[in-house]
Amino acid sequence: MQRDLANQVCRKNEVTEPRLIAGSDISAPDSHGIAHAAVVILRYPGLELVEVQVVDGKPGFPYVPGLLSFREIPFLLSAFKNLSNEPDLLLVDGQGAAHPRRFGLASHLGLILDIPTIGCAKSRLCGQHEPLVNRKAGSYAELIDNNEVIGAALVTKNSATPIYVSIGHKVNLPAALFWVMECCHGYRLPEPCRLAHLAAGGKYQTSKSLAPSKI
Q1: What is the Rg, in whole angstroms, of the alpha carbon atoms belonging to the chain?
Q2: Is the dihedral of CA 109, 113, 177, 188 positive or negative?
Q3: Disulfide engineering: 200 pairs with which of 27, 32, 70, 150, CB 3.0-4.6 Å?
Q4: Alpha-carbon dihedral of residues 154, 156, 162, 166, nearest 10 degrees?
């Protein structure tokens, strides 16, 4: 299924001037087996927090490396359905094309929602890249698997460990790298992903509108 759906992913850039940028993340299940999926929306270019939606539930699919989307997408889609705003771009805490079958969580979610999506993973699932000797923000090395460029190891903060950026849907790699850097405000993770991670961890209450002063 993943190989078939990967052929439907659009690798052409359709991101021009996004007004609202979303981030998504899901927590690990707690002691009761309950996970929390969060979607946040930020206003670009200031990256002010506009909306947060969080849903809870028990995953109906086991954790299997490479099949993360089948476990997480039902929760994330529930959170997206509750949104009052429609994002122009989505940054996902997970892989896009940097996946053994070129169809990670970011690609799967982007294809279902039909919006430009970028994978922003904290760790590498597959592929190799040259050492990043110069750990300066904005520097990157192409991530290659079977002689194919599947993403990039991107340094988002000086001296920080890189994150792994890849095409999700309706974006190309240069645009993905650009928008991830545009969304980094002094942290290793881009702000949409960072705030989604905090929301999934219970930092923010579900709300249709949050003033920047409440962040």
Answers
A1: 16
A2: negative
A3: 27
A4: -40
| Burial (Cβ within 10 Å: 0-12, 13-18, ≥19) of residue 196 | buried
Q: Which residue has the tokens 């929760």?
A: 75
* Torsion angle of the four alpha carbons 13, 143, 162, 11, in this order, in degrees rounded to the nearest 10: 10
23 closest CA partner among 152, 124, 142, 109 = 109
Cβ density class 159-176: b for 16+ within 10 Å, e for less = eeebbbbbbbbbbebebb
Count of positions (residues) in the chain: 215
Cα four-point dihedral sign 174, 177, 178, 180: positive
List, for residues 145-191, the tens digit of each pLDDT value.
Answer: 999 999 999 999 999 999 999 999 999 999 999 999 999 989 999 99
pLDDT digits over 87-123, tens only? Answer: 999 999 999 999 999 999 999 999 999 999 999 999 9
